[in-house]
């Protein structure tokens, strides 16, 4: 037995009455398809039932009928053209009456689809579109001005923007009223700011008004809109800097526009943000003919925003303390607005922004060095990435070096070990006897209730990602100090080695961040190794590691990326990556191979190596020769990274300490003759490893194996089970051999 037609079943069951139509609306919309709306005897009955629902006295039934009409028109274009004359008239009558919000939204969506989906049918355009579009646009303007719901206002302005782009000549009579409506929204509000959805919709609508001028007048209207927006920006900025020195602006200082200083500051700030959004929309819009972008004027305003700091001197004249405090509090908001405007400008004019890159990089580097909040740091890092991606890198070595060092400060928290830091803080506040009796078990951090993570907020997580992206772009510049480049490669290599061993819960509460950061690190290391003869370019495993993903949707590689990485291995003209591993002398991974400039750069970034930590372990261990000597105060064990590099005043070159060197405070200081007895002491080392002190050889390679540090016990406790005995020293042995 053949199954009944889908439309027949819906008409007999779900759409049998107005109440059932509202109740089963979701099922009806999900059941409809293009095949069910193909020409059939039931199609005419279907359209008649939808029309009867639109004429119903029940508002819910009319809403259900409008939703079904929208779904039917989107699935069948012939049915839409056939029924649009009657359904569109009913929808227009709904917009002119006081109807519930769902009804108004459904009518706006239906009319937008009908008026934009049949632009290729001339007869439909002549009979329906031309007389309906002006009435529809006028109804949308009335909705924006009268309705208080932000979602409906946003829908109306987005629809009005689409209608202006599709039918610009039909909106010339309404261009003045639409412009006034946009100006009222973009003028700002206080004390409550403009809604974000409403702001972006109004900015996009304002940026589309130049279409009403046609091919000839569109460029002039666009230029006029840009000039007016720049004037509003300068006026708002001058209203926010009344207690600061006079800025070089094309407009005279007008002071406060409102009597209340609190309302004046909030109003000018919101007006500034609205004008920035409008200018960004104007830069992103499409103009039919070439136009000249006032890059110099826009850049001058951005530089003025970036020059605003909390350290600016106060004017000598008397100022209100409340106004001064409020204007100081909004300085980060001014810098965020500058970053948003610069990102949009860089994407619009691209390499034409190169003459301003050096100055912009210097100013943003200064703001990064002031240790801003994570939200502001993220804005700065995103702006730096966009600027360097769309223009040439800065030509000066100093600015590039400062920028890379400022970006690396955002990545240093990834190098710190949280459990070690927790144990160091605990040990520093306890006595030596308490530390001796306390027993730490492996995996004890799992049972700690107060476990901290590196990224404790979503803003800090985003800072890590933005810092990696910005560092990848900054490292592409050729003007970079070799010491800083080497240090950056060491930090990235340390991150790529330590991050896979770090538990996901130590990095962030979001477990996907670990995979995302790991994938970014592999990509940066692979880019640094590509086509170079550096240490990372000599390892085949780096390319193979970058192709492996962990199945996360954020880290899945595309086929093109995998093809490019495999092409590095198979390309006949590319530099081969299958090379012998470099010698130890070619690597700068050890402190003995570290230059003075690289050490100074590492110290300025508060980065410490494992050698520094080991030296601090030796200096922090209390060693007493006689009971009469005072016991030194135990020092806390610093974390690996990030910690300030300790100042080591050892005359010998820095190398990894051995067991005999770590116990040197107990014995005599090494002399010049001790280097001659190195061969003799090495022969006796199997019998008595602590009989003499071996001298340091400046050319000896560094030892990578962690040495065993014996614990020196000063006080004698009655509990013999818990006491660790120091190895006995044979006093009869002759260390001079």
UniProtKB/TrEMBL annotation:
Name this polypeptide is given: Pre-rRNA-processing protein RIX1
Q: Where in the cell is it found?
A: Nucleus
**Chief place where the protein resides:** nucleus
Q: Does the keyword Lipid metabolism apply?
A: no
One term under GO cellular component: nucleus
Q: Which organism is it from?
A: Rhizopogon vesiculosus
**Residue ranges with Polar residues bias:** 656-666
Q: Which residues form a coiled coil?
A: none
Q: Which UniProt keywords apply?
A: Nucleus
| Pre-rRNA-processing protein RIX1 N-terminal domain sequence ranges | 8-191
Keyword Repressor, does the record have it? no
